UniProtKB/TrEMBL annotation:
Gene Ontology MF terms in the entry: diguanylate cyclase activity
Keyword Coiled coil: yes
Protein name listed in UniProt: diguanylate cyclase
Pfam families (UniProt xref): GGDEF
Source organism of the structure: Dechloromonas denitrificans
Length: 505
């Protein structure tokens, strides 16, 4: 006969059974599983909350009824069924007999409009959890069906919502873990791209950019940016690989020509040596001086031919060497041009903000999101105050450093979903999705305050940088260019109003 299980063992097994049956971890469910494992009778627990709700709903119309209600509360506290029964009978008797029923307060009913909005909320949340969990799909279907009934069973709906919330919590935690695992895998792939590259000097910037892009928190803007950068890397790798294959073929052909030339030179040398040896043998047999002249003429002709052929071979080898050097230089230049083209395609090389092309692409994306989600989108056009005077007094290098300083401070104040772009010269545009006009003005005002705290250093001199800005919220059918034009007009109003101001466009 096996030993009886210890209470902690029963408790642990009860928790496992709750999870296996996908039951909500309520005290009642836990007690039922515990009693089942311990082979104890599952006595229904004392329903204290509903009874207290009933007691609160009773309206006492006499001192006797008031006393009965107090007795009912005391009986509920003692968990005494007999006391509850006696108190309720006393309440009825104080009202004039069993014919009169106690008056109850009308319990609140879930408004139909609220039920519809709750159903819509559930429908919007479910796609984010995926369709792999059949249990969630089944429970959400039942919950949505209950919400759409003409007469809502409020207790049943509350129970369904509690169970569904429990399942959604598990699914959401799983989705978070999946996203973190995918990010780790993506990091590993990107790092391996850099490790596997034979010449990674041109690829390092792109790999670093990709790694920086996939740092949490993720957003659609970050993912779009990562996709564009990854495509840049793939295009660059493809072009470099194609040109490298061509260069390898050219090198092979030049090496083949070099070997053939060496073989020709070797044959010519061997023939020349043979002629010299034959001439030496003939010289030994000459008896008269006049017989020596034709032989010397032949030797001189062979020597001249050898010299000419050697010079020609040297010239051909020099040409081959120049081709090799030119091909190597071309490959290096190709890598540099591809790297520069990729970096400058959408980013300003000075501030690392988006350039006009990158801004145009970001505007198209954000406007599409705005219309799809029906959320506000604001943008700001800001212009550094007195920038020409700063350039004239401190020099253009200090002016460039001031632009970099402003861009860095702006990035620190921005949300991950916001976008910074250099519009031209000392002008910048900031896109702010899910931001109404008044909040956009607050964002720009906060950036102005941050700039006053973070002085720009030019050598040992502290320089206060300020800007004037215009903010515009895009209308539903408005283009990005029109919104920028409105923000630009508001920015000039801010300039005329005294600078270092933010105006609405």
């Amino acid at each position: 006969m096996s030993e009886p299980k210890q209470p902690f063992e029963i408790a642990r097994e009860a928790l496992k059974r709750l999870a296996a049956r996908q039951l909500a971890p309520t005290p009642a469910n836990y007690q039922a599983c515990y009693n089942e494992i311990a082979k104890l009778p599952n006595i229904v627990p004392f329903p204290e909350p509903p009874l207290r709700q009933l007691a609160e709903a009773l309206v006492a119309r006499s001192p006797e009824q008031k006393l009965a209600v107090e007795q009912l509360g005391a009986a509920i506290a003692r968990r005494s069924w007999q006391g509850v029964q006696d108190a309720l009978l006393g309440f009825v008797a104080a009202a004039g007999g069993p014919a009169r029923e106690p008056e109850l307060k009308i319990l609140p009913v879930l408004p139909v409009e609220f039920a519809a909005k709750l159903a819509r909320f559930v429908e919007c949340v479910l796609p984010a959890l995926g369709d792999d969990n059949e249990r969630i799909s089944e429970m959400s279907g039942e919950f949505l069906h209950a919400l759409r009934q003409p007469e809502l069973d409020l207790p049943a709906v509350q129970g369904m919502l509690a169970n569904l919330s429990h399942q959604v919590l598990f699914a959401a935690e799983e989705q978070v873990e999946i996203k973190e695992s995918l990010l780790k895998l993506l990091h590993l792939i990107i790092e391996n791209i850099g490790e596997l590259s034979l010449d990674d000097s041109w690829l390092k910037g792109q790999v670093d950019g990709l790694l920086a892009t996939v740092v949490p928190p993720l957003s659609l803007r970050h993912l779009d940016e990562m996709e564009r950068r990854l495509r840049d890397v793939m295009v660059k790798q493809s072009e470099a690989k194609s040109r490298s294959i061509e260069a390898q073929e050219e090198m092979r052909q030049m090496l083949s020509a070099f070997i053939e030339r060496l073989a020709t030179m070797s044959e010519s040398s061997a023939a020349f040596q043979g002629r010299i040896e034959e001439s030496a043998r003939l010289i030994e047999g000459i008896q008269r001086v006049e017989d020596l002249a034709p032989l010397l003429k032949d030797v001189i002709g062979a020597t001249r031919s050898m010299v000419e052929e050697t010079a020609q071979s040297r010239q051909q080898l020099q040409v081959l060497q120049e081709k090799v050097l030119n091909t190597e230089a071309e490959l290096v230049q190709l890598h540099l041009e591809l790297d520069n083209a990729s970096a400058l395609a959408r980013h300003d090389p000075l501030t690392d903000a988006l350039n006009r092309k990158g801004l145009d692409e970001a505007l198209v994306r954000e406007i599409a999101n705005m219309r799809r989600k029906e959320t506000p989108l604001s943008l700001s056009l800001l212009d550094i105050d007195n920038f020409k005077k700063l350039n004239d007094r401190l020099g253009h290098e200090a002016g460039d450093d001031a632009l970099i300083h402003l861009a860095n401070i702006a990035r620190k104040c921005m949300r991950p979903t916001d976008t910074l772009a250099r519009y031209g010269g000392e002008e910048f545009v900031i896109l702010m999705p899910d931001t109404p006009l008044e909040n956009g003005i607050e964002v720009m005002t906060r950036l102005q305050r941050e700039l006053t705290k973070a002085f720009f250093l030019s050598g040992r001199e502290k320089v206060l940088i300020t800007f004037s800005a215009g903010v515009a919220q895009l209308a539903t059918e408005e283009s990005g260019a029109d919104a920028i034009k409105r923000a630009d007009q508001a920015m000039y109003l801010a300039k005329r109003a005294g600078k270092n101001r933010v105006m609405a466009g």
